[in-house]
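Deliverable D4.2, example record:
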Amino acid sequence: MSGLIGELKRRNVFRVAIAYLALGWVIVQVTDVAVPALNLPEWVPSLVFFLGLIGFPVALLFAWAFELTPDGLKRSEDVLPEDSVTSNTGRLLEHLSLGLLAIALGFVVWDAYLSSPSDEAPPAAARISEITESADAPPLQASIAVLPFEDMSPAKDQEYFSDGISEEILNLLAKTEKLRVAARTSSFAFKGTNADVKDIATKLDVGNVLEGSVRKSGNTLRITAQLIDGDSGYHIWSETYDRELKDVFSMQDEISGAILGALKFHLLGEQAHAAADTTNMDAYNAFLIGRSRLNQRTREDVLVAQEKFQEAVRLDPDFAPAHSLLAATWIFLGDQWETDSSDRLSPEEVEREAIPALEKALALNPESADAYAIRGLLHTQRYRFKEAGADLDMAIALNPSHALAYLWRSELRFEERNYLAMLADKEQAYALDPMSLEISEGLARDYRNFWRPEDADRIADRMEQLHPGSLPARRTSIQNLTSLGRYAEALPLLKAATKAYPDNERMRSYYAWSFDFLGLQDEALAFGLPDLSMEVHLVRNEPEAARAILEATTPEDERYNAVLWQGMQLEYWHGDNDSLARVVAAYTQELERRGEPWQERCHFDLIQYYRKLGQGDRTEQMMARCRDETVGMLEAGYLCPCSWFNLVLVAILDGQTDEAVRQAHEWLDKGDSYYGVEIQPIFAELKDHPEFPTLLRRNADQIARQQRIYKAQGKGSDNS
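Output generated by the structure prediction step:
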């Protein structure tokens, strides 16, 4: 044995082993650093270690069998003892080993004490953001946007399948804790734009972007997915899946699950699985088309979406998501739609169609976040706030990335007079879906009311940048001006919006009333709106002309409720108590028909009318609500100039005339005005106060200033 060991030493086998191990250690350390830096696949370090491991016995065998001589490499048995230079080679190997060990030690010291935390983690882990917490939102870490997969098939016939793959992955990711997922409407807004991935990540405020493609060749589908770092634009992970085109839904389910598992491994170190909602390809295609059209929110698109969802549930009655979104179409065709009221469904029609669809969806999938969120919206619109809160909370618990659930829940926060929580919900919705016009418009409205006009303008500018010329973007810019009393500057924008959307009656009405707010009554009358015409006649003290409009209007007229509102003011000033009582009764019956619990809500003028009728005891709940709302708004800072006037009305109704005058001066200080304020039934109670003429003069001066600005713009009206 001693002879063998001696021969191993003479042939430098031990020295070769030490040198090999030292060199291997250095290579492993270098590989660990180089792989993430060069964005190499994660299996490279394992391959390097494996090759080094199998090379070790080969190196030892080589050292035993061969000897390095001045004449080159020779077999050991061919070298005479007196010609051997193994001692020199041994010293060289010792020096090499020491040098390699020094390098390895340097790596260890650098890794342990000198490297920064960002150098220790691979890029995928570095994208995980610091956990943020709020009272209503779960902790959020990694963030991702799932872009619509591109259809690269020669026939371009796989678009909806491509969208479906993307949507399935997005929906599964959205249910993942600690992962913030950009909403579908935001991600899909970049479809077909060829935008830079880093720009997309910046606009959606995400750290990672998933993109991919689908290519059909014969009976084979090739699906490619790529996870990209949003800051650097470098690929973190990619994979290609080739599948035979047989069971499309099983294939989609399998691939979505595989991609999801890979993403969660790279982002969160977790695993996941997918569950298919339907196995009927025709139903699924109809659903995808319907969902795409529903997101547009125009009446025409919602009607098409409704037809597609009805087709989907006819083809597959157990397709839960189609039932949920079918219910949403009924709701949007009711209170959420923005055209003539004659086109809107009645509350009874909405509930008759929407509730069974939602019940079916939840029976099929008791954990459907969409169904809970949509039912919560329906409850909110029917003033069933307790039920709405339970449903919306459940939707968010099931899907912490459900942006619309946060938006719709914010309306409940308003009803609770919890204005700061309301804003927090809207900001959370915007963070999840910054491309959504509906969410952006709602957040801008809150920023206006919180007296944050710069933030409201920022949202409006971004809406216009992302959706040029869209009605919500135009409307937001207009309301940002009118909320500050800047009607003259808003009128050109209103004119342009009305021309761009001539069939939108709400925008046309807004345009018409803005002329009235500026005191341009002839221009206002030219629009022919009955309620606006009554307002002009009342300011001009022409009660008979106003009464003729009231008597000619029937419940079938689209502006019937607005005419009744003006009719109450008409009878308050120019009628007797019996005629006032009749119009008040008709108006409150309309509120009841809509399901509004009006006795529990704040209606300033109704309080005044009931007091004149000697029925002030009927207004106690309304008055308490008005006090709570205005005090809560004042404490939260939720009062823009346009709503400051409410403080004046509350003070008058409470008999605090001096306080009302003080608030009226402050309201005017903020730049707002009210043409015809002298006939406003509550404000007119100040007529005996010494400051009343001053208030009227200040109000008239502000209106005159706005008229000068309007005329200086050289803008003529177009009332057609």
